[in-house]
Every structure is written in C-alpha cells, then in structure tokens.
Specification:
Blueprint lengths: L9 E9 L6 H14 L6 E7 L6 H9 L6 E6 L5 H11 L2 E6 L11 H9 L5 E8 L5 H18 L10 E4 H7 L9 H7 L4 E7 L12 H15 L2 H29 L7 H34 L6 E4 L10
Parallel strand pairs: 1-2, 1-4, 2-3, 5-7
Antiparallel strand pairs: 3-8, 4-6, 5-6
Helix pairs in contact: 5-8, 9-10
Length: about 325
C-alpha cells in the first residue's frame, strides 16, 4: 500500500479534543510525549489540541505552561463550545501528518497503545487502525445497558456494527483526506469513519479509570448524539411511520367491518371508552410520527444553512481562521 510522503508533513499527529480539562491536560500531554519519544522509528510528530470553548483555565494551561515547553504542541481554541464531534473535525482538518491518531484527554484511551497502533500502520497493510473496547471499565449498569441498546438499534437500522467501538483511532493520510471530503454538519465520527471503509485493523484495550476529571456527557447530550447519529445513517424511522399508518388503516377497516356486522345483526353498537382510547392511541401515534419527521427536517435545515462546523478564535501556530467546512 502506497503511503503518502510529503516532506512538509510530520510523520504523525495526535489530535486531542478537550473541554474543561485543566486538572488533567498537563499530565495527559506529558504521558503522551513520553510514549512518542520511546518510539525509535518515529522521526517527527505534532500534538494538535482542540480547546472546545472551555470555561475553565484549560486554554491558559495550554498556552502558558505546555506550548512554551513543548514546541510540538499546536493549540487551537474554538470560539465557543461546538461539541466533541465538531472539535474532532477541527483536529482532522488542521492536522498535517502522514498518520493521525485521535484520542481523548482523560487517559481512558491508553497512550501505551500508540506504539502498537503505529507499528501496525507502518506495516503498510491498513489505512485505519481502530482501538475497540475489550471492557468498558468502571461504568454504571445503566450506562452499560443504554450503550448496548443504542449500538444494537444503530446496527439494526444502519447496517454498521459499532459495538465496542471508540473514537481512539489511527487514520492514514488517505483516510483523513477522504474524511475531509464529507460535508455533513451533523457529525457522528465513529459511524462516518466506519462508513468510509478502507482497509483496517483492530486492537483491543480496556477502558482505564478516568483521571482527574469527570465526564462532560450528560443524559440529554447523549440522547441528542444518539438521535443525530441515527438520523444521519438511516431513514428507517421514516419507514416506521408509514408502516404504523398502514397498520392503523387495516385496524380501522377491520373495526368498521365488525361494527357493520353488529349493526345488521341487531346488536347495539356501544363503547364510548373504546372510542376515546382509540383516539388517544391514534393521536399519540400522529404526534410521534410528526416528531420523527421533524427530526429529519431539522437535520436537513442544519445542512442547507451551510454554516461551518466550527469557528477557530485562536491558534498558537497560525492566524485565527474560520473553517470552510
């Protein structure tokens, strides 16, 4: 497999989206740099940190303590909190390297795995090396069940199996360039990277304990991400609306026949409570159907506005820019 070889490129870039990580970011970067320096075959690297509009001192730590000491760090600050998926897009568009590794800042993605992923890529047989979860670590029972349910539904609707998948990946330049051609504003990184295809390999890891920080995801944001990902990859919910309509038509036809037979048989037609119940069921179904259609219309509305996925306000190695994507 032909690898991209550009003289201006670093051999590898690490992309790390961060949001309110002042307590852990310095330790994370130092750990990653130590791992990179241990790799003898690695000649040059860059660490691209995307500050997704942090409201704490994350940016001050990056620019005041880390960048002056480590010139290989490029810190990018977005103008506000656009969300992790948008921050990942920013990192992939900015990183200029033959291979790009995407990982989280909380050390749940073990830096010790970087060397193995790098060696697999260096063999030249794959374009993407993805880390899959052997174990989800110390996760609550509810979160585990919810995650399994989501991935089962997503796989069923989209045909893309993301069980145990993570955002921890190494992408070859060819895969990154292909990613940059995808114009969606409603981004689901795991799904879109799987959709691209390419030759890929997997390495397993156990999710480590979160170090010095708490998850920035709450239930509402996870539900929003789930709805976005399903709407982006499958139109099946719209077909469910059609199927529900067909079922209600068949049911109403049968109920009409039964009522007609009872009328000509001299049996009194009664059932006020039944009528009210049917109205509630049909009304609820209509509202749910409108909600599903509304979700897709909202996604279309977001896409046709053509607003950028993110806006960069500060860049430690370049002038502030507005992303074209």
């Amino acid at each position: 497999m032909q690898k991209h070889q550009r003289e201006s490129m670093n051999e590898r870039a690490i992309v790390i989206p961060v949001f309110n990580e002042q307590s852990i970011i310095a330790r994370t970067i130092q750990t990653i740099i130590k791992e990179l320096e241990r790799i003898e075959a690695l000649h040059s690297f860059e660490i691209v940190i995307i500050d997704d509009g942090s409201s704490d001192s994350t940016w001050q730590v990056l620019t005041g303590k880390l960048c002056p000491v480590h010139p290989e760090i490029r810190a990018i600050r977005l103008s506000r909190n656009f969300g992790k998926e948008a921050a990942l897009c920013a990192g992939l568009e900015i990183a200029d390297a033959q291979a790009v590794i995407i990982m989280d800042a909380d050390l749940q993605h073990p830096p010790s795995l970087i060397d193995k992923m790098y060696r697999i890529w260096r063999d030249g047989q794959v374009d993407i090396v993805e880390a899959v979860k052997r174990s989800r670590g110390n996760e609550s029972k509810f979160s585990s069940i919810a995650a399994k349910a989501f991935y089962a539904i997503f796989s069923r609707l989209s045909g893309v199996d993301l069980r145990n998948a993570s955002d921890f990946k190494l992408m070859d330049r060819r895969a990154v360039d292909a990613w940059k051609t995808l114009p969606e504003r409603n981004v689901f990184f795991r799904g879109m990277s799987a959709w691209m295809g390419f030759e890929r390999a997997q390495v397993e890891f156990t999710v480590a304990e979160r170090s010095g920080s708490v998850s920035k995801w709450n239930t509402l944001s996870l539900i929003k991400l789930a709805l976005t990902s399903i709407a982006a990859f499958s139109s099946a919910p719209l077909h469910l609306v059609t199927m529900a309509g067909v079922i209600f038509i068949m049911f109403s036809f049968l109920l009409g026949m039964l009522t007609t037979i009872q009328h000509f048989s001299g049996v009194a037609v009664s059932g006020f409570a039944t009528v009210i119940l049917l109205l509630l069921i049909i009304g609820g179904s209509i509202m749910i159907s409108l909600g599903i259609i509304g979700e897709y219309l909202a996604r279309i509305y977001d896409e046709v506005k053509l607003r950028p996925r993110f806006v960069v306000s500060e860049d430690t190695k370049a002038e502030a820019i507005v992303s074209e994507r």
